[in-house]
Amino acid sequence: MKILIAPNSFKESITSAEICDILTDELQKLINLDKIQIEKMPISDGGDGFLDSIEFSRKTERIFINLNFPYKTESINKTYFLLDKQKRTIYIESAKIIGLNLIPTEYRNPLEMNSKAIGDLLFWLHESEIKNEFDTIIIGIGGTATQDLGLGILIPFGLEAFRNGEKLEILPKFYQDFTELRLNEKIRNYPFKIKIVNDVENPLFGKTGTNYVFAKQKGILENEIHNLELGFENVVKLLEIKDLSNLTGAGGGISAIFQIYFNAEIISSTQFILNELGLSDKNEFDIVITGEGQFDFQTNNNKAPNVIRNFYKNKNLHIIYIFGNVIGNFEKLENETIYVLNDFFNNLANSKKFVKNGLVKVSKLISERITEITNARTI
Question: How far is the CA of 216 from the CAs of 192, 220, 225, in angstroms?
């Protein structure tokens, strides 16, 4: 019995690599090792755990850097990115720079934050000692705390905002007030190829766009969302962006700025997981275990578990899903099993807090399910 463990990270709870280790350790305790062979593959669709999945799939070097957090604090974010010298590629995870997981609850106000720290890193790379060691930058976008249309990224490259001649901070709370935006055009000559992996495929504007779908999750009040949308529209008008049809809203709109000013290529989550992480080579399995923190309407929109489902749907194997929580109806197929960690706890907060304990509990159920599947196949 060959088993592949390929989960996505549970946002703000646990990384995909940690999930792989816990499930592997527990299943090895519970099942006769002579009967199973387990392979681990942490995956990511661009959000939390993006760098973990890269490190697991290939040899890279961690390069550490000090960046400012997106909220006002005297603390410094000591974070890192990855360099693959063989592929001449830099990998950056937005969640490690402006991620919601980095922001204390009391500071979660996206109207007061921007994505400047990502721009600082890109500008530093342009001037750094390692600039001759890479040609391409791949950025995983997801799990962000900011909702600033990515304008903060342009600050180190000279972006300034004004209201009737008065200079304003580039923060979403001022976006409706802007009457002029000035940007040094050298930004368009950034020397490295940028590719982005988006964890969602929502458009930039509208009821299915970044503000109406994600802003509330990040701490913006319901009655503020419409004004934020108007602020985005004002910014797009001032930047004289004509064609909005292909712009995506991942990361609070930062993917759109990468498309507009860095001519970024979008790598779909499916393409990234299959090709960059190598799922396309993982064919000979009997059971695949996957999942993520929450199943909701976004999951079937090329989120990591759905990429797994689509890849293996015509293969003769069983898929086991682990979700922290489920919102809506998960339409389970005949060859699928689903476990929800929230079922072990009395509320969602405890489910997140005791996620490792929940994974231990669900491992016992999974081991029993594996035994059932094994017995059924040997009859």
Answer: 34, 5, 8
